[in-house]
């Protein structure tokens, strides 16, 4: 697809058993895409391969036309990876941390500071900009990690369960930042178990089960697919996953 942010084809990964099975997945440029699936379906494994943190057994990954397996550094420059386990240096303040990360990306100090202050402001961290991260709650650390992932202004933001554990105010700040990024043309892919978030925010939803994409589309398309007009995403999800499990067991 010419305007794809991400094109995955034939992607496979096994640990002691197959976890990702010949996956094909295309995310359009500028799209907000939610990846759903039961525990252990392979979502994190897929995203870790896209982010260049895990080597696929087979398959191709293209990020805005860059072969992410052959030219991992070029791909990483345009990707943000936000894990569900934030890694931030305890002995730095959020501002120092963001300036440090910006330095790794060779962003000049003035731009780095301006971006860092904007991100801290959007995420409600401005009052804590000069406190040590070691004193922060897990939710605050999650927001600092998100800010760190965005400081190089990536074109593709990949997030693994970004809202888990956040209070309502923090979740709203994170959602607003992501929606603003999408409005600015950035592509967002995130996993979530909060179906309401996928329902409200995502333009398209992909359902992963046993390492394969078993359904994909807008909420309306998924509803049509299971043949009921007013169904909630939760019912659609449970229906799809149960049907897939029956198929795998048969
Ligand atoms: N490094 C690893 N070594 C061995 N097995 C692994 C490794 N990483 C993941 N797995 C296994 O791969 C399977 C898929 O895990 P993955 O974390 O991708 O699922 P998930 O869909 O993200 O699940 P959840 O919704 O619970 O986060 C699981 O059975 C998991 O135990």
UniProtKB/TrEMBL annotation:
SMART domains: AAA (SM00382)
UniProt keyword list: ATP-binding, Nucleotide-binding, Transport
Coiled-coil residue windows: none
Protein origin, superkingdom: Bacteria
Xref: Gene3D superfamilies: P-loop containing nucleotide triphosphate hydrolases
Keyword Transport: yes
Domain ABC transporter: residue ranges: 6-235
GO molecular function annotation: ATP binding
Annotated family: Belongs to the ABC transporter superfamily.
Protein name stated in the entry: ABC transporter ATP-binding protein
Organism per entry: Devosia rhodophyticola
